[in-house]
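Worked example 2:
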Amino acid sequence: MKKKMTNRLIAALETRRKLLETAKKLVCEKGLVNTSIEEITKACGVSNGTFYTYSNARKTLFLN
């Protein structure tokens, strides 16, 4: 069964995309060890808790 693309689902997908793109950019610039979750979330304009909704650690953000 196909899921309907609700506004909430669209917003969640956009947040995840923004987190991934920002994390990728920062990690490429500074390295994984030197990039904090706080830097990623601040650059995205979301809370640290939002980050953990999509991933449990920096390195696992790229695995899903």
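The mean pLDDT is 88. DSSP finds four helices and no strands in the chain.
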